[in-house]
Amino acid sequence: SQTIHQWPATLVQPVGSPLSLECTVEGTSNPNLYWYRQAAGRGLQLLFYSVGIGQISSEVPQNLSASRPQDRQFILSSKKLLLSDSGFYLCAWRVTGLGGAFFGQGTRLTVV
Amino acid sequence: GIQVEQSPPDLILQEGANSTLRCNFSDSVNNLQWFHQNPWGQLINLFYIPSGTKQNGRLSATTVATERYSLLYISSSQTTDSGVYFCAVVTQGGSEKLVFGKGTKLTVNP
Known about the structure:
heterodimer, A: mainly beta, globular, B: mainly beta, six-stranded mixed β-sheet
């Protein structure tokens, strides 16, 4: 069966520090991968999505970036965190034509 | 891009009541899902329903793709149904972008 791993579960980082969040999927090949951010009490904002290795579509032109170095690995990064980067970050996967999307447990990021 | 609108934004019910949540979308889709986000933030898949009707216990969903809307029915609501319900779509035409509505926040009181 397919599983998605996302870590860490919680993270407290100072302003100006770098960020690296990792998401990996098991049990499937060539998934579409997604990063979302959710501010407290708000909806899900799509940040990046990827349909293949090295292919990244950006929806939010801010100080965040994403990379997909392997088929089932998706990384969200920042060189210098801002207070406004605080939020709940969710990774998801789906396979085109084979049903819906599935989400990881999320990472709660607090920038202080 | 596609617009996904959910209504109502907030809903308060007494335990045992029934409810209908709506999701309208502005373009043709080949993927529509309903999710429940629990108080811990976890997104739970409820239905994958690009068209037709499905039922799972007290929950059912109907998508009328030609009229660009989907409905989620909750019967005999329980306090554990509380949380935020999202619908999400992928448009036809090749883009794999998965777009969410803003959600309906459901509170079920005992």
